[in-house]
Amino acid sequence: CQLENLSLLDLSYNRLTNLPKELGNLLKLNTLNLTGNYITTLPSSLGRCSGLISPSPLGLYLDDNPWDPSLIQIIKQGPEQLLAHLKSVNVAGHLKILKDWIAETIN
């Protein structure tokens, strides 16, 4: 990835409706501004970007988006809980892929 050292990404007010899963490959990302878009959910791969909450949970800006109601409560709990949720979803997704692959391989 040519952007592997990217630490700040400002995507505010761009009328975005979704984000690519590849965003989770930016492991050095410590500031992500998504303010003022039309995003309703976040890719689970974003859970790999632990720099968004360390050393300070100020690097994730999510205001003014029409979030999915199930995500709103998690967002209100703060960035640490949001990234923990995304990590758990990401792990669950990988387990499903592995399970499907094993089933295909056996059959």
Short summary of the structure?
The protein has 107 residues and is mainly alpha-helical. The chain is built from two helices and three strands, in the order E-E-E-H-H. Helix 1 packs across helix 2.
Topology:
Elements: E1 8-10, E2 31-33, E3 60-61, H1 69-76, H2 79-106
Parallel strand pairs: 1-2, 2-3
What is the SS-derived class?
A: mainly alpha
Q: How many E strands? A: 3
Average pLDDT score? 78
- Kindly report how far apart the N and C termini lie: 35 Å
Rg (CA only): 15 Å
How large is the share of residues in beta strands?
Answer: 5-15%
N to C succession of SSEs: EEEHH
State the share of residues found in helices, binned by percent: 25-40%
Helix segment tally: 2
> Which sheet architecture does the biggest sheet show?
3 strands, parallel
Can you describe what's shown?
The chain has helices spanning 69-76, 79-106; strands at 8-10, 31-33, 60-61. The protein is built from 2 helices and 3 strands. The longest helix has 28 residues, at 79-106. Helix 1 crosses helix 2 (79-106). The chain has a 3-stranded parallel beta sheet, with no helix packed on it. With 107 residues, the chain is mainly α.
Key structural traits:
107 residues; 3 strands; 2 helices; 3-stranded parallel beta sheet; 34% helix; mainly alpha
